[in-house]
């Protein structure tokens, strides 16, 4: 239940602290006094969007704090799931900064608006005239049935099954589209794959082929150069090898005289060994050189094939071509295996559909059972509210469309008087009748929803007299189970409250502010008398006010 509301710098309110009880409270005041400001402030605490127009002083921040006593409402799981500190008296704070940014806190922990809105659904129901119009909305009508039927667990199960079914459907659609796309590309992919496969590409092959091509293309020049090198090295009289041998022999004679000469001798010996080895290798390479036009043509053709494939696929290496080949192979294999994958996914979808349908049927059956219960309860309350002949007809049909709350479509028809045909409620019910029907619905739901608090914003629209007294009595009865607020212009309803708050405006120094005060007994008599007769209060009005309060 709402215990305390602090408001600072919001709309016409400079600063306000107000405490509430857990019974039936009425809120009165002239039109434009600021009753809607209280609802606006509560709306911000519960997660509504905010902007700079909410600030009275645009240079100061707006702060709204609401204290909720929640110990009896089983909300620990919500706080645990959202990593929030649980307190039996929970403080929700909303701040709007002059920059336009807003912040929200639950027990001093920052939260986003989605979390705040979800928490708000467990704390308070703010009924407005807009919500009365929602009575004609099919989804709202189903929510009423679900509350009476106790379908919360079934709805959770349905949403879980529907989510799984939609996920599988999306996967099946993706596979089917993939199959269509790949089938269109299949012939071309197969052609490209065969082209690459037939090329028999190997890692490192391109560099090796390019080296061989260079050698074969210059074989005569290479032979000439190697031959010349061998001749210089091995010429019998003046060859490099012979010269090194003579140097080695000369140094050998003096190598034992000094370590320095010994080093020279070793170095020349190493040069001679290395030169011998180079000459031997050059000789072998020379012997292996030959003019081979056929091999040259083969290498040239293979390289041209590689270059052509690289240009076609816009790559620069054989390794990249091999990667493309592997990718094409997977695509070709995937097409061949897609039919099996689609068949398997279709079976999964059929199973998920059956599971979703089974829960939808349970929801439908539970709603059907709740219809007579809800109808009897509402018509009994409406009889008290001056509508003894009101009748409802809930037409519930299950279709093939999957909605977020089942497969049901609902058509609520209404007749207010004997001898009149049923019609759509939004077309045949007057404003006053709609107000009474909504109050009856809320009174029934109060026994099922277990919400801590409810605020009725002028639910008395279009009613007066004894009907207003009955409406007040029903709200008073509801307050035995929950905290009830009624914003009203009717003295019959205002007088029924355990407490009465007055919203009023004051003006000083060209500054208008809205204020709220808890009325004493004498102040209540005066306020209710003014509601009866206007500012010029008569003795008759005062007497009537006292009678209403008693």
Summarize the structure.
58% of the residues lie in helices and 19% in strands.
Q: Notable features of this structure?
A:
alpha/beta, RecF/RecN/SMC_N, six-stranded antiparallel beta sheet, ATP binding, 18 helices, 19% strand, Rossmann fold
Structural topology:
Elements: E1 2-10, E2 13-19, E3 24-28, H1 35-45, E4 62-69, H2 76-81, E5 89-96, E6 102-106, E7 109-111, H3 113-121, E8 124-127, H4 129-133, H5 138-149, H6 152-199, H7 205-217, H8 219-234, H9 240-254, H10 259-288, H11 293-313, H12 318-384, E9 391-403, E10 406-415, E11 423-424, H13 425-428, H14 431-449, E12 453-457, H15 465-478, E13 483-487, H16 491-494, E14 499-508, E15 511-518, H17 521-533, H18 539-549
Parallel strand pairs: 3-13, 3-14, 8-12, 12-13
Antiparallel strand pairs: 1-2, 1-4, 4-5, 5-6, 6-7, 9-10, 10-11, 14-15
Helix pairs in contact: 5-12, 6-12, 7-11, 8-10, 9-10, 12-14, 14-15, 17-18
């Amino acid at each position: 239940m709402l215990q305390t509301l602090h408001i600072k710098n919001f709309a016409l309110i400079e600063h306000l602290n107000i405490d509430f009880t857990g019974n039936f409270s009425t809120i009165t005041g002239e039109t434009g006094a600021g009753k809607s400001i209280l609802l606006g402030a509560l709306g911000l605490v519960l997660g509504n969007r905010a902007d700079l127009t909410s600030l009275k002083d645009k240079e100061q921040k707006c702060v709204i704090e609401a204290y909720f006593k929640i110990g009896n409402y089983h909300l620990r799981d919500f706080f645990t799931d959202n990593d929030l500190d649980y307190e039996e008296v929970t403080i929700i704070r909303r701040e709007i900064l002059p920059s336009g940014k807003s912040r929200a806190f639950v027990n001093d922990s920052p939260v986003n608006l989605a979390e705040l809105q979800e928490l708000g659904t467990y704390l308070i129901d703010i009924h407005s005239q807009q919500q009365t119009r929602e009575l004609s909305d099919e989804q709202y009508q189903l929510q009423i049935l679900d509350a009476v039927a106790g379908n919360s667990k079934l709805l959770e199960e349905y949403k879980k099954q529907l989510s799984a079914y939609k996920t599988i459907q999306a996967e099946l659609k993706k596979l089917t589209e993939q199959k269509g796309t790949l089938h269109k590309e299949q012939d071309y992919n197969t052609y490209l794959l065969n082209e690459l496969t037939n090329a028999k590409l190997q890692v490192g092959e391109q560099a090796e082929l390019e080296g061989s091509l260079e050698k074969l293309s210059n074989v005569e020049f290479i032979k000439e150069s190697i031959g010349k090198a061998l001749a210089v090295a091995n010429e019998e009289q003046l060859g490099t090898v012979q010269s090194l041998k003579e140097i080695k022999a000369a140094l050998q004679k003096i190598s034992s005289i000094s370590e320095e000469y010994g080093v020279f001798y070793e170095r020349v010996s190493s040069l001679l060994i290395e030169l011998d080895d180079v000459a031997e290798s050059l000789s072998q390479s020379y012997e292996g050189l030959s003019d081979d036009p056929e091999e040259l043509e083969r290498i040239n053709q293979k390289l041209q094939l590689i270059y052509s494939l690289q240009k076609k696929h816009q790559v620069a290496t054989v390794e990249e071509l091999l990667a493309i080949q592997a990718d094409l192979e997977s695509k070709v294999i995937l097409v061949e295996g897609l039919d099996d994958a689609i068949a398997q996914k279709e079976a999964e979808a059929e199973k998920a559909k059956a599971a979703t349908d089974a829960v939808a049927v349970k929801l439908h059956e539970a709603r059907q059972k709740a219809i007579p219960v809800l109808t009897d309860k509402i018509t009994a309350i409406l009889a008290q509210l001056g509508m003894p002949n009101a009748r409802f007809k809930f037409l519930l049909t299950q279709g093939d469309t999957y909605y977020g709350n089942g497969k049901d479509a609902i058509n609520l028809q209404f007749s207010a008087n004997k001898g009149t045909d049923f019609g759509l409620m939004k077309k045949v019910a007057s404003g006053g009748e709609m107000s009474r029907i909504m109050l009856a619905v809320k009174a029934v739901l109060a026994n099922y929803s277990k919400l801590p608090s409810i605020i009725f914003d002028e639910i008395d629209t279009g009613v007066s007299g004894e009907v207003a007294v009955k409406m007040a009595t029903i709200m008073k009865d509801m307050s035995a189970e929950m905290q009830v607020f009624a914003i009203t212009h009717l003295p019959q309803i205002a007088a029924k409250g355990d407490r009465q708050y007055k919203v009023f405006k004051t003006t000083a120094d060209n500054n208008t502010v809205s204020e709220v005060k808890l009325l004493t007994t004498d102040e209540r008599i005066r306020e209710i008398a003014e509601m009866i007769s206007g500012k010029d209060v008569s003795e008759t009005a005062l007497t009537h006010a006292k009678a209403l309060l008693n």
